[in-house]
């Protein structure tokens, strides 16, 4: 019995050299899973004999077998240490050969970190794990969702930013072991991280990905994403856009009934009447609290004040604080002054307060679009767009050369006229 | 030119008929002269409307008395009964419920109905198109006189199948239009007006004028003031008194003038109303409307709004216009405010308030509302009470739009590529 375990260890040590050997090793290890399970308690010692950096594949299998099932506290602690170390030093090529196992291991790491209430401890190793399991930075892995969840729990939003700033284009199940649920979770958690960073525009983008992902059934993640989408839309844009036409019909039909309270809030927000909106939030307080959206709901109310004040800047050149307080339904001129001061500091309006007369003068946006900074910004945006357009062209070419596509096109047209694929 | 005198002639203003009631205070409408402008059913309907909606007993009784006289000339016993109930004996002797008259009229009517129906059946068996058509027509007229509008409508519509010349078709359409207007079903009115318009060889200007008026009324009812105005100002003056069972020429002037003021822009107002010779003839009948249009065009807003106020009580008693008066007045007032501020870079709100005869605070609120709806491009300096015109900076706006479009494009393209990938790998969330 011991022999089989030792045999496995020996194989690992022998075959971890070149790439071909590793592939061979992967096959062998798969077959030896049973063995590993049987010898679970002794695997810990076997691990000592292996070097996580050189024998990553074997180490992976052994570590995974070692940590299967429920672990005692100190075992869990030692597992965390071992896993952290492994993830930091392991070799990317090797672990890519057994990607499912790798995902299981990482998930286990995340679960233990959460159980021990130390989500931040798993951040660095998971980040390393993501970078290693991604064939390129455009691929989405199941680890993305776990990593973002840990960022949220530990409130380290900036850490999540590094992952989120990569544009995700490739969803390849075979190479990353991804399932649709992971994608939706990634969008949902990603949106929440952006909310934490107060970048509402990007948050909206992520939530919209979750809502418009192809689906045949409605699921809880989409509903939760939609609820946050509505609230963030109100804060950022002041109105909720209708569904884009590529939203799956299942979602379009059923979402209204699941999120009725949010719809009511959105409709009332349109009326710009602050007392109505406050009343609505109050009435649906339980629902909002259940969905942990109370904070967002309060931000919606605050944003309505701001929006009303901004509308005043479009209409008036100067206005007394008393009038502002009346129009926007604030308590009194003092509160109006506080609000406006805050907005000026945040750069949301351009105004000066004349305290002697109790007047506020509104000014135009001083941005003249003629500085070097602005020129640089425009330039970088143009570069981004050119890059994006190139990607679009390449994807288009890929589709044009795709067998399925050509056979479909070929069927519709007469044989004598073969279409030439166009470029650009 | 002072509007005085009680003689009802064709040159009197209809809607402004109350102007003759003496100067100052509440303008009392002169019911008699007003009613003398109309004939037929609309006269009675208008009198009833006035009686229902006016505020003075005297006027009410006067209207009901005239209505009673008019009804007795006809054969509509149900209406007679209704009228008598309204009067409720307040007018004394000759205006009590005359049951004998009712019975005799009903009897005669029953006999006539039988006779007409028998004749119609006879014609039907003989299958002579023209006779059947005339038979249905007569039946329709009979029902109309009796006040049974639904039946009359049905009969007139049936004549359609037996119409052979365009004249027949026009006659049929006009009858249906008449009944529909009285029923208040303006959808039918629009339908039959377009039917009549499509009939070839319609040359008679009177007929054309009637059709235009009917179309105008239909548009007015559905609150499409611009279309209504266009129809009314295009009505030929040959209409004269030929359509008084529906509408009088002074009404054409009033409705057309007010709708035009509320909905035409300055160029259209000049070309279609002020320079329009045909419509000018109508306006001569209602000098007040003519004056107020000219005042508006010449920016004499105080006097324009003054005329409007004077006309208001009488217009509220007009059956077609009463629920549009408020909306039209509001639109005219807004147009006046916008036109006033248009040529200036800065406007002192005090002078403007005196020009419009309101308070500065009220004026400020009105202007703020108009600015928020983007009807006026300006900003208010509430401290010094000045309105400053504000012209959007095109260059900045363009830059902002460019940046916005750029980021929208990027966002949408990224989403699309992601979605394309999801679909390629069949990455669908299934149960």
UniProtKB/TrEMBL annotation, chain A:
The keyword Cytoplasm applies. SMART domains: PINT (SM00088). It is found in: Cytoplasm; Nucleus. Transmembrane segments: none annotated. InterPro entries: COP9_N, CSN3, PCI_dom, WH_DNA-bd_sf. Keywords: Cytoplasm, Nucleus, Signalosome. GO terms for cellular component: COP9 signalosome; cytoplasm. Residues 199-367 form the PCI domain. The keyword Protein transport does not apply. SUPFAM superfamilies: Winged helix' DNA-binding domain (SSF46785). Signal peptide: none annotated. PANTHER family: 26S PROTEASOME NON-ATPASE REGULATORY SUBUNIT 3/COP9 SIGNALOSOME COMPLEX SUBUNIT 3, COP9 SIGNALOSOME COMPLEX SUBUNIT 3. Belongs to the CSN3 family. This is COP9 signalosome complex subunit 3.
UniProtKB/TrEMBL annotation, chain B:
GO terms for cellular component: COP9 signalosome; cytoplasm. Residues 1-26 are annotated as: Disordered. It is found in: Cytoplasm; Nucleus. Residues 225-394 form the PCI domain. The keyword Nucleus applies. InterPro entries: CSN1_C (IPR048624), PCI_dom (IPR000717), Rpn7/CSN1 (IPR019585), Rpn7_N (IPR045135), WH_DNA-bd_sf (IPR036390). It comes from the Eukaryota. Keywords: Cytoplasm, Nucleus, Signalosome. The keyword Transcription does not apply. Residues 7-26 have a biased composition (Gly residues). Its main location: cytoplasm. Belongs to the CSN1 family. This is PCI domain-containing protein. It comes from Riccia fluitans. The lineage of its organism: Eukaryota, Viridiplantae, Streptophyta, Embryophyta, Marchantiophyta.
């Amino acid at each position: 019995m011991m022999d089989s375990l030792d045999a496995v260890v020996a194989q690992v040590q022998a075959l971890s050299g070149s790439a071909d050997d590793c592939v061979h090793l992967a096959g062998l290890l798969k077959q030896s899973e049973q063995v590993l399970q049987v010898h679970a308690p002794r695997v810990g010692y076997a691990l000592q004999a292996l070097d996580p950096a050189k024998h990553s594949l074997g180490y992976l299998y052994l570590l995974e077998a070692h940590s299967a099932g429920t672990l005692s506290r100190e075992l869990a602690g030692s597992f965390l240490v071992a896993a952290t170390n492994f993830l930091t030093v392991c070799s990317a090529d090797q672990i890519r050969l057994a990607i499912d196992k790798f995902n299981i291991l990482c998930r286990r790491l995340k679960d233990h970190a959460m159980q021990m209430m130390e989500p931040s401890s798993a951040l660095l190793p998971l980040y390393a794990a993501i970078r290693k399991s991604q064939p390129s930075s455009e691929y989405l892995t199941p680890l993305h969702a776990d990593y973002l969840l840990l960022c949220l729990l530990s409130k380290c939003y900036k850490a999540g930013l590094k992952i989120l700033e990569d544009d995700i284009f490739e969803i390849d199940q075979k190479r990353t072991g991804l399932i649709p649920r992971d994608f939706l979770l990634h969008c949902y958690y990603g949106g929440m991280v952006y909310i934490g960073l107060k970048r509402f525009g990007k948050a909206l983008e992520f939530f919209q990905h979750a809502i418009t992902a192809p689906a045949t059934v409605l699921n809880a993640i989409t509903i939760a994403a939609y609820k946050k989408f509505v609230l963030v839309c109100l804060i950022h844009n002041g109105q909720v856009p209708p569904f884009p036409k590529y939203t799956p019909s299942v979602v379009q039909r059923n979402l209204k009934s699941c999120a009725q309270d949010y719809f009511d809030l959105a409709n009332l927000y349109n009326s710009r009447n602050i007392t109505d909106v406050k009343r609505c939030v109050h009435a649906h307080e339980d629902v909002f609290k259940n969905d942990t959206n109370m904070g967002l709901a309060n931000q919606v109310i605050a944003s309505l004040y701001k929006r009303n004040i901004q509308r005043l800047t479009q209409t008036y050149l100067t206005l007394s604080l008393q009038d502002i307080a009346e129009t926007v339904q604030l308590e009194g001129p003092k509160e109006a002054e506080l609000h406006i001061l805050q907005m000026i500091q945040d750069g949301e309006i351009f105004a000066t307060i004349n305290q002697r007369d109790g007047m506020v003068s509104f000014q135009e946006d001083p941005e003249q679009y003629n500085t070097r900074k602005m020129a640089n910004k425009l330039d970088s945006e143009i570069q981004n767009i050119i890059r994006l357009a190139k990607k679009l062209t390449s994807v288009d070419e890929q589709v044009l050369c795709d067998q399925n596509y050509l056979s479909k096109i070929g069927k519709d047209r007469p044989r004598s006229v073969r279409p030439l694929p166009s470029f650009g | 030119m002072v509007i005085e005198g009680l003689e009802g002639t064709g040159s009197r203003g209809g809607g402004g008929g109350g102007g003759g009631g003496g100067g100052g205070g509440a303008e009392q409408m002169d019911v008699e002269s007003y009613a003398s402008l109309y004939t037929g059913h609309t006269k009675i309907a208008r009198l009833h409307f006035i009686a229902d909606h006016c505020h003075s007993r005297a006027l009410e009784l006067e209207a009901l008395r005239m209505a009673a006289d008019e009804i007795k000339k006809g054969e509509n016993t149900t209406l007679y009964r209704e009228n008598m109930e309204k009067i409720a004996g307040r007018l004394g002797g000759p205006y009590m419920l005359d049951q004998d008259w009712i019975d005799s009229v009903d009897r005669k009517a029953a006999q006539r109905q039988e006779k007409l129906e028998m004749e119609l059946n006879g014609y039907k068996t003989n299958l002579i198109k023209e006779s059947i058509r005339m038979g249905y027509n007569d039946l329709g007229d009979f029902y109309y006189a009796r006040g049974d509008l639904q039946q009359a409508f049905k009969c007139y519509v049936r004549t359609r199948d037996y119409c052979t010349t365009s004249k027949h078709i026009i006659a049929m359409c006009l009858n249906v239009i008449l009944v529909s207007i009285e029923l208040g079903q303006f959808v039918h009115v629009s339908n039959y007006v377009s039917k009549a318009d499509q009939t070839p060889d319609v040359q008679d200007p009177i007929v054309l004028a009637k059709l235009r008026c009917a179309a105008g009324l239909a548009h007015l009812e559905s609150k499409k003031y611009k279309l209504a105005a266009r129809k009314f100002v295009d009505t030929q003056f040959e209409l004269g008194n030929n359509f008084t069972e529906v509408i009088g020429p002074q009404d054409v002037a009033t409705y057309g003038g007010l709708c035009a003021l509320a909905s035409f822009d300055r160029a259209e107002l000049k070309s279609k109303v002020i320079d329009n010779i045909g419509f000018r003839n109508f306006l001569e009948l209602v000098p007040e409307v003519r004056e107020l249009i000219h005042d508006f065009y010449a920016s004499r807003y105080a006097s324009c709004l003054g005329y409007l106020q004077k006309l208001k009580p009488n217009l509220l008693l007009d059956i077609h216009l009463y629920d549009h008066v408020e909306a039209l007045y509001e639109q005219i007032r807004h147009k006046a405010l916008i036109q006033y501020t248009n040529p200036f870079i800065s406007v002192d709100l005090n002078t403007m308030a005196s020009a419009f005869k309101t308070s500065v605070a009220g004026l400020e609120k009105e202007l703020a509302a108009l600015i928020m709806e983007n009807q006026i491009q300006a900003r208010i300096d509430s401290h010094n009470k000045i309105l400053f015109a504000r012209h959007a900076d095109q260059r900045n706006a363009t830059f902002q739009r460019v940046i916005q479009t750029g980021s929208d494009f990027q966002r949408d393209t990224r989403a699309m590529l992601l979605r394309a990938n999801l679909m390629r790998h069949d990455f669908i969330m299934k149960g």
